Amino acid sequence: MDKKEVFNIIEWIKEYFKKCSSAKGVVIGMSGGKDSFVVAKLCTEALGKENVLGVIMPNNQMTDFDDAKISCEILGINYTTIDITNSYSSILDSIQPYLQQNNIALNSVSTINTAPRIRMTTLYALAGSLNYLVANTSNLSEAEVGYTTKWGDNVGDFAPIANFTKSEVCEIGLLLGLPKQLINKIPSD
Predict the structure, then answer these.
(1) Cβ contact 107:95 at 8 Å
(2) What is the torsional sign of CA 178, 181, 186, 189?
(3) What radius of gyration do the chain's Cα atoms show?
(4) Who contacts 61 (Cβ-Cβ below 8 Å, separation ≥6)?
């Protein structure tokens, strides 16, 4: 990985947005992790920080909330916090009568995957209203091992780091000058 490759990613984002000439900017779900931080930095380099909106979406408690906020502040991008707790609870509560009626327990497949799908729906609702695109923040390592939620965190209009492993994403972040303590931190999940 070198600066030329990072430059190529930034140029690719610029070209992608030229083809989507009606798009005014990008929304990014900011998790507090390195992937969203690196994608947000790439987008600020390509589009300008005024065209990037970070969205922090806690579901009750969010372990990396402070890191998500700090990442947005370091980049100088606008950001908002949208608490998805009520949406999450409402969906799970609404399916409980059917499950109980049929002696089926709510399982971890449902509880774990519902939140990322709500987050993506939230990003697309904002993007549609703002005439923005949604950035996919998934990397190649996650795709290869299946650590993703279908129609959740693996969705987006464009995916700047989809062809890069987690290690390469860290290298990109460091080449972009992002703080080592946030790029090299151990993921909370």
Answers:
(1) no
(2) negative
(3) 17
(4) none
Measure the CA–CA gap between 164 and 141, rounded to whole angstroms.
Answer: 7
Helices (H), the chain: 3-19, 34-47, 65-75, 85-101, 108-130, 140-145, 166-175, 180-183
Tell me the C-alpha to C-alpha distance, in Å, between residue 117 and each of 44, 64, 73, 142, 183.
Answer: 25, 19, 26, 17, 25
Q: What is the pLDDT of residues 29-49, one digit of tens each?
A: 999 999 999 999 999 999 999
In angstroms, the Cα distances linking 50 to 18, 26, 44, 92 are: 17, 10, 8, 36
Asked if 148 and 142 touch (Cβ cutoff 8 Å), the reply is: yes
pLDDT at 146: 67
In whole angstroms, give the CA distance from residue 80 to residue 77: 10
**Mean pLDDT of the 67-83 span:** 98
Round to whole Å and give the CA distance between 25 and 48: 9
For residue 136, what is the DSSP state? Answer: P
